[in-house]
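Quick question, first post here. What does this chain look like in 3D?
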Amino acid sequence: MKEQNVKDGNGKKKKHFFFLLPLVFCILNLVTGCVQYDVGVNFDSQTHGTIVQHIKLGERLTSFSSETVGDWLKSVEKRARFLDGKTKRLSEREVIVTIPFNNGAELEDKFNQFYNPIAKTAKSRVASPLETDLPKFESHLSVKQNNLLLVLRNRLSLELDLRSLALVSSNGSPLLNPGGLLELDFSLNTPWGAENISTTVAGALVPQSYQQGKQLVWKLKPGEVNYLEATFWIPSPVGIGALIIALFMAAGFAVKYQLLPALGIGKKPQNIGQA
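> Answer (accepted):
Ran it through. Tokens below.
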């Protein structure tokens, strides 16, 4: 995806993303759902999880601009490899990206790196491996964790700026609202389920959510700043293991010093005096 800079009347540069131009073709042909983009965070346990992205492009979109779409999908794969992730091409129009993480801090780091490429500095002429031609989302994911011995309490918040997906003219007025052309979902899958928190943030939209089993899903709105927040609990294997060991030790002491003496087992025989 290439960027074109156009100066407005105030001399400021406006960015137009060629990746979004095929959406105009979708409108002209009355095609809806040109791009389906599902992002999911799966917490399998306290020490393992995955970021899963399922991207499916409309048939007419790929036929209209196959080279642009191909480059964009390659850039997705490049980012995934840099973050130790894997990609699986289901077809020329559909790909699944899986990025592993081991804890909340690593989830924050990898998620934010994927959607916020590291810009080149004046001292470095070499672009970061994450500097690709994805649409310029601005996102910030945060995970706060409290260890309560047997369980880990998590509070996840995500602010995702999708305003770059709305086509604008050189004077800044909207040309296209991509809400009907893009289907964007964010899901959170945890062992015990998650609870949505309705928090109002100035300048941000709180997307609608629904529960699907242990999965909590938000329907993101393109062209807006989306903010979501949820809490969930995860069992702590370390805490549970420590509790089991403590119980076994307590049971051993009880058997040795209370049960066996009560049964007369393990007592030393009394000395019998000589006549």
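The radius of gyration is 28 Å.
Confidence is low (pLDDT under 50) at residues 1-7, 11-32, 119-127.
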